[in-house]
Amino acid sequence: MPVSERHSELVYDALVAAGVEVVSALPETWLVHLIRLAEDDPGVILVRLAKEEEGVGISAGAHLAGRKAAMLMQNHGLLQSVNGIVSLAQLYKIPLLMLVSDRGHLGEPDPWQTQGGAATRPILDALGIVTDELRDPETVQLQVSRAMTLAQASLAPVALLLTRDLMWEALA
Amino acid sequence: MRRSDCLEAIYDELAGCAVVTIMGAVAVELYSLGHRPNFFYLEHAMGLASSMGLGIALSQPRRRVVVLDGDGSVLMNLGGLTTLARYAPGNLTHIVFDNQSLLSVGGFPTATATGSDLAGIARAAGIGNARTVTGLDEFKAAAVAAINASELACLVAKVEPVGPKSFHMDLHMLENRFEFQRALRPEGNSP
């Protein structure tokens, strides 16, 4: 599978370095290595979701109980979570670090991913959510760390979009 | 059976727990009995009270957590029951007040009014200890036992579709949120 194991590890290590102890996730292709890493890490509580919006509740509970949390989901999972993001995370000022695989852009071969890809950034913008792209492996650790710092300081959701450039192994 | 009587019956038992309620009548009736810092009233995000309870229960395995849910809210997050069952934290008790209606928005019937069985759904989701109670004494005994047991339980209490005259609470959502977070800090662990 051409999903990058090396870059998935970079992202995972950055989450752990940022103090994440609770990871809630719903699998998709780009996230398989990240989720396996969480699964194999005894220091992290991995919560496998039936639907992504649950992750907003779990992250909020974890935050109020003193643990840092992150959500791993596809951009369609973000779309699915919008009510929870607005009416729990934003309404109650909950820091919410969201790692969102950014499907549906240049190079996307799956027709069903394309509509959601086009909607992701406008929706994040409409919600006023600070968003950054993880693209360069050299800056992943710093970006994740800064995203967590901002989420905790602003008590608000922050989205990091996992781009194809980072997550997909370049073919030789 | 009235929900307000159920809440009164377990009010003392909730003193040492982290309590998460849904919005509407459940929140107001618990608040009216006397607010405590360990009570969090989720005034929106219908369906996510149980997910919040799961997040708290997994984060603080030694703290007893009680979610006071409703049929309308549970029906919005049925998948969440499978997630509760999957992790089944022994310190979590999920109490669902089923009045078979969306009381605070006109009293329209929910699907439990036409036969959907939430305790049955919870059992089928994998929560072994899930049952329906209809009488107050039975509710109190089952709820107190569930809260003190080290097993995930889902208790569906069939209650009358009656609620408070007013839904006003003299407690801002954010005040409640920060106070609750402080109440969940481990003893002696100041910020």
**Total of DSSP H or I helical runs spanning 4+ residues of chain B:** 8
What do we call the CATH homologous superfamily of chain A?
Answer: Thiamin diphosphate (ThDP)-binding fold, Pyr/PP domains
Class by alpha and beta content of chain A: alpha/beta
Structural class computed from helices and strand pairing of chain B: alpha/beta
The oligomeric state is heterodimer
Main β sheet profile of chain B: 6 strands, parallel
Strand content of chain B: 15-25%
- State the name of the first-level CATH class of chain B: Alpha Beta
Residue stretches of chain B low in confidence (pLDDT < 50, at least 5 long) are none
Q: Report the CATH topology name of chain A.
A: Rossmann fold
Polypeptide structure, described:
Chain A has helices at 5-17, 32-40, 53-64, 75-80, 82-90, 114-126, 140-154, 164-167; strands spanning 20-25, 45-48, 68-74, 96-101, 130-134, 157-162. Chain A has 172 residues and is an alpha/beta fold. A six-stranded parallel β-sheet of chain A has the order 2-1-3-4-6-5, with helices on both faces. In chain A, helix 1 (5-17) crosses helix 2 (32-40), helix 1 runs parallel beside helix 7 and helix 3 runs parallel beside helix 5. With 191 residues, chain B is of the alpha/beta class. Chain B has a single domain (3-183), classed as Thiamin diphosphate (ThDP)-binding fold, Pyr/PP domains (Rossmann fold, 3-Layer(aba) Sandwich). Chain B has helices at 3-10, 25-33, 49-59, 71-75, 78-87, 118-125, 136-148, 173-183, and strands at 18-21, 39-41, 65-70, 92-98, 101-102, 108-109, 129-133, 153-158. The longest helix of chain B is centred in the last third of the chain and has 13 residues, at 136-148. The mean pLDDT of chain B is 95. The chains are: A alpha/beta (172), B alpha/beta (191). Chains A and B meet through strand 2, helix 3 and helix 5 of A and helix 3, helix 5 and helix 8 of B.
